[in-house]
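Ticket #4471: structure output looks truncated?

Reporter: J.K.
Steps to reproduce: submitted the chain below (311 residues) through the standard prediction queue, then opened the result file.
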Amino acid sequence: MLNLSRRSIGVFMHRTPILMNMENWQTPKEKYLHDFKYHGKELSFTEAKNIMFQYLDSSGSVDLEKDSNGIAKIRLSNPRFKNAINVKMISDLEEITEKLTQWTNCKGAILYGANGNFCSGGDLNIAKTINNPFSGYAMNIYIGHVIDKFKRLPIITVAYIEGTGAIGGGAEITTACDYRLMCNAADSTVIGFPHSKMGIVPAWGSTGRLVSIVGVRKTLDLLLESRLLRAAEAMDSGLVDGTVTTMADAEAWLSRKIKGDLNVIRAIKSTVMCYNDSLETARMMESRIFAPLWGGTAHNAALEQHLKHNK
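Returned output as attached by the reporter:
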């Protein structure tokens, strides 16, 4: 039994407020090192969007093509930077997602990149411009919300990965699709999450989605090792669902999945998404963990050295 004298109890009671006050005295950096979270201003989606729209430019686009067979083709287009994602492209994706919500005859969609490449990640020029935790938090809230909405569309979505592949933010976007197909026409096509080499962790809700796809241990391996996987290894890990040679092959692959009744297909997708509700809470926590790393020492050093694509 614990035996405390009146004096020792008095000392303990006297010190407790001091320990509590010490936590209140922590600097933002010290508090982050304590619990790995952002402690700045909370932002609504609209507030985050307004902040990010300060960096909206005219380069890049996301384009929608509707086929009569009920399949949409969504093209990421920023060829100058191998379709790297910027604010304009996310804005376009937000509008396209709304259009697909209203296209009631749609069964499925293929997400692909222009000029034979999928997506090289986030636009590093933007990253250098907004490299501070507050902007990182705003970016994660805005882009994460848009991608969440895309993920929840009641249609079956496939990412068709070709050319240089899906790297960093490009790989993150593929996790919002129900399936991932890699083109086997070239051995150089890869998929991977080199974020740790950039001094950050994945954002936009992709960590939770990756855990759902490949499990906890494989997610740890992919994020800690930062390796870029070719098709065979990506399939072995469960990250990729198949290989095809052309866009026509990808469309045929999707068509086999959605050959049933339109309403049944959309009901199946909607029912499955009901079990992903807890991911929203996880994504908000991811935003708070990601933000302080964005613009941190390791991240800035990596941006200067262009480390993302080094294998």
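Triage note (M.O.): checked the attachment and the full token line is present. Residues 6-24 form the longest helix (19 residues).
Status: closed, working as intended.
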